[in-house]
Design brief:
Strand content: 5-15%
Shape: rod-shaped
Largest sheet: 3 strands, antiparallel
Number of domains: 2
Number of helices: 6
Helix content: 55-70%
CATH class of the largest domain: Alpha Beta
Mean pLDDT: 77
Low-confidence stretches: none
Structural class: mainly alpha
Radius of gyration: 36 Å
CATH topology of the largest domain: Double Stranded RNA Binding Domain
Number of strands: 3
Distance between the termini: 99 Å
């Protein structure tokens, strides 16, 4: 009884959060998944090829679907199961038909646009961060250079009169040189 009570509140607290960082919740207002009429699809089972061992090459587990109205052909051999390959092939075919019909308003196009925006935002954040770090580093070097000057106006300078005298002597020696 106690475990069920705790489990209820843990899950309800998790579901009650107002904001989510999960990417599936961030994409909103996607168009509904496309539905294809079974009469428009012809399917065949083929022997697989490529990596996966002898089992894939010997059995007819790969699925090839053809959409009659558009002529789009999709093949799936992702798994060893016919039913799973059939499901994957139908999803791929539906996505391709929708992209052909809707273009930029299709689910796949919207998802790709969101992904591009996120990547661009991430890149922009990184650039901003490193630019700020570089500026901070440059500012720190400039302030270090200013503190190390020990000029006559420096409040930490112990002998401001001696510094002025050295400067005056340098000016006199430069003006006394012929040709300058």
């Amino acid at each position: 009884m106690e475990l069920a009570f705790q489990r209820f509140f843990k899950t309800s607290a998790r579901l009650a959060r107002p904001f989510s960082t999960h990417p599936a919740h961030a994409i909103k207002h996607l168009p509904p998944r496309p539905k294809l009429d079974d009469a428009d699809i012809t399917g065949t089972y083929l022997k697989g090829s490529g990596p996966g061992g002898q089992k894939i090459n010997k059995t007819n587990s790969a699925v090839q679907l053809i959409h009659k109205p558009t002529g789009i052909v999709v093949k799936s051999q992702s798994t060893r199961s016919r039913s799973q390959n059939q499901k994957i092939a139908r999803e791929l075919l539906a996505a391709k038909v929708e992209k052909l019909e809707r273009g930029e308003d299709s689910r796949e196009a919207i998802k790709a646009a969101v992904k591009r925006k996120r990547k661009a935002s991430s890149t922009k954040k990184k650039r901003r961060k490193y630019r700020a770090l570089e500026e901070e580093k440059d500012n720190q070097q400039e302030s270090d250079d200013l503190h190390n000057l020990d000029g006559p106006d420096d409040p930490h300078n112990e002998h401001p009169d001696a510094d002025r005298q050295v400067e005056n002597n340098l000016e006199k020696s430069e003006s006394a040189r012929p040709g300058t």
